[in-house]
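Lab notebook, design round three. We kept the backbone fixed and only want residue identities now. Task for the bench partner: fill in a sequence for the structure below.
Input structure tokens:
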């Protein structure tokens, strides 16, 4: 038994092309995120106050900053297609990205893009308008996939067409926050850069996580800067 344990410890953990641990089966993080959104959506129907308690409006950033995250798990209770489209997109993108990046890195990109979407609303949106939805995080996954495909030398034309169509919807339908889409897209693309361009070797994971931490610092700095400039205008 000791020999088996020593051999197992000496065997290197299989890694994906971008440093994530190779795992079989379903993408657990993707399904967990979908499950959380569905549970919260049901809660929004049963307890109408949930939407207003957890949704995000820029004016609430200084006093209730956690709304920048919680709003990404809410969806419009009166528009079923909102959550259906987002969850389908999350499922499709998660099937591709989670196995490539690994669970932890995929979740990090998703959450950073979610926050980035809120930062986009903070800078470009109406301070008093309540925003809900996972669209910012979904667009972040689109951005990450674009960077990955470019790194692999894949054809990105189909992805760009899908992005263009979805981006256009945000300008034609006032109920869709194009600001969250833009913030999430840019953040997801930025978060993917250290993941796909970190040099191979024993320090790759450290470089990747430092890069992701750097993205979080940038988002925090943009949030603080906007709050400072907004207070100076009032």
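Proposed sequence:
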């Amino acid at each position: 038994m000791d020999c088996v344990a020593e051999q197992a410890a000496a065997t290197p953990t299989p890694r994906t092309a971008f440093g994530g641990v190779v795992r079989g089966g379903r993408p657990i993080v993707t399904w967990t995120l979908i499950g959380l959104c569905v549970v919260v959506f049901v809660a929004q129907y049963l307890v109408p106050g949930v939407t207003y308690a957890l949704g995000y409006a820029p004016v609430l950033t200084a006093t209730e900053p956690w709304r920048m995250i919680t709003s990404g798990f809410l969806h419009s209770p009166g528009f079923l297609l909102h959550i259906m489209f987002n969850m389908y997109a999350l499922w499709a993108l998660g099937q591709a990205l989670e196995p490539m990046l690994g669970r932890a890195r995929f979740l990090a990109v998703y959450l950073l893009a979610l926050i980035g979407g809120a930062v986009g609303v903070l800078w470009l949106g109406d301070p008093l308008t309540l925003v809900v939805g996972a669209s910012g995080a979904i667009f972040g996954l689109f951005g990450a996939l674009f960077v990955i495909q470019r790194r692999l030398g894949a054809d990105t034309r189909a992805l760009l067409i899908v992005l263009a169509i979805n981006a256009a919807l945000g300008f034609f339908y006032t109920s869709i926050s194009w600001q969250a889409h833009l913030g999430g897209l840019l953040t997801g693309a930025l978060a993917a850069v250290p993941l796909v361009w970190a040099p191979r070797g024993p320090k790759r994971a450290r470089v990747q996580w430092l890069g992701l931490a750097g993205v979080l610092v940038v988002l925090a700095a943009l949030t603080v800067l906007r709050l400072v400039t907004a207070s100076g205008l009032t």
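Keep this in mind before ordering anything: Confidence is low (pLDDT under 50) at residues 3-10.
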